[in-house]
Amino acid sequence: MSAKVKSMFICSECAFESPRWYGKCPGCGQWNTLSEQEQIVVVKSSQSAPLQQAAVSRLSDLAQVKERRQGTGLTELDRVLGGGLVDGSVVLLAGDPGIGKSTMLLQACKTFCREQTVLYVAGEESPGQIHMRAVRLELETDRMLVAPVTDIENVLHTIANVKPDVVMVDSIQTMSHPGLTSSCGSVVQVRECTQLLLRAAKSGNFPVFIVGHVNKDGGIAGPKVLEHMVDVVLYFEGDRQNPYRILRAVKNRFGSTNEIGVFEMGEQGLADVENPSLMLLADRPVNVSGTCVACVMEGSRPILAEVQALVSKTGFGNPRRTATGFDLSRAALLIAVLEKRGGYFFGNLDAYVNIVGGLRLDEPAADLPVALALISNLLDKPVPDDVVAFGEIGLAGEVRSVAHAQVRINECARLGFGSIMVPRASMRQLQAPAGVEIIPVGDISQAIGVVRR
């Protein structure tokens, strides 16, 4: 067996490998993402040992192993993880700089260190900086070990000697393998270091948290295969000027990928927001046109959010269409439906859609409140303050039913809303709570009639 160094051009977005340089990556189509990196290629000799058959088992003979989950001390984090942290799992936590990733891990250490040993691999911060943050978070324990190293072989050797119960690596982009000639943070380094950590976690049956950077487009920096290797991928979203943070799972082998967690950043770190609807509706204006309350489902949790719309005369040849927290193509589709099926002209008007609180509404049930907010501002007639709406709008102008209608209605009634606009097709299975009026609508014209009362 021999080794030789081979030069390859590797894409920083999708890890596509090519022996020559391309301006446009053939794998993902991005421009100027291929960079030259040296790889060590191992050449096996022809006189290698004969292959042995792998151990195979019948599916019916496999015993069902019940996974053990441990709480992190943060209720919202446990919700997104699917009930807690699973032994042997590798969790990738990504987000913008300064969003609170390291703070969340240190707060989780407060719970882990009560009965377990935590190894915190600090690749970005010095031990003094970590101690300052730990003091601010009131984390004083002898069970937390800090290792300021960036050599992945040194990290694995430390894990083998210390035998921690939980390992946290902050961040994977600072880790490097001495056997690779490429710099830390490159595609090869990130891939190989993650593979070694994954192997150690599975063989030692201890959970590993990995902090990852994000690129300018908001995706996780490094190869796309990184997300396929780990068990859980969490995105930490939010604006650093806004105290509220949203934790979203985009991959979870041990739970749902539709759950979100809401946190509030304060002087004592991140605090759970158990009722996000009250937070999102706290500063809602009263008796103002262009606003409507939407009820969407985030996993198993119904959330009420405020949808705002502004329609104004354009000063340019082509009207502007802008959406924050809502899909821009979907907003353009709704405007086209309102013009064709509702008879309202937006051709010379700018249209702006905003979801308050930094929440992003990807569910089709948000179509109806967005359309009502647009019409409300166009007519300058406010939607009644006690009205909540949800429903999908089709190209024919019909309002289509959505899932979990009864759960949404119960949540709206609990928060004190007296009128709920729902698709007519959902009325067969609904029961109105006491003191709540259900407004069934079959098409967009009937929904607009509520605004024009």
Report on this structure.
This protein has helices at 75-81, 101-112, 127-136, 152-162, 187-204, 225-229, 276-280, 328-342, 367-379, 405-414, 444-451, and strands at 2-11, 17-18, 34-43, 69-70, 85-86, 90-95, 118-122, 144-147, 166-170, 208-212, 232-237, 244-252, 260-266, 269-272, 291-298, 301-313, 321-324, 349-355, 387-389, 392-393, 399-400, 419-423, 437-441. The chain is α/β, with parallel strands linked by helices and 453 residues long. The chain folds into three domains: 2-43; 69-274, Rossmann fold, CATH 3.40.50.300; 279-451, Ribosomal Protein S5, domain 2 (2-Layer Sandwich). Strand 13 (260-266) and strand 14 (269-272) form a beta hairpin.
Describe the secondary structure blueprint for this structure.
Blueprint: E1 2-11, E2 17-18, E3 34-43, E4 69-70, H1 75-81, E5 85-86, E6 90-95, H2 101-112, E7 118-122, H3 127-136, E8 144-147, H4 152-162, E9 166-170, H5 187-204, E10 208-212, H6 225-229, E11 232-237, E12 244-252, E13 260-266, E14 269-272, H7 276-280, E15 291-298, E16 301-313, E17 321-324, H8 328-342, E18 349-355, H9 367-379, E19 387-389, E20 392-393, E21 399-400, H10 405-414, E22 419-423, E23 437-441, H11 444-451
Parallel strand pairs: 6-10, 6-11, 7-8, 7-9, 9-10, 15-19, 17-18, 19-22, 22-23
Antiparallel strand pairs: 1-2, 1-3, 4-5, 11-12, 12-13, 13-14, 15-16, 16-18, 20-21
Helix pairs in contact: 8-9, 9-11
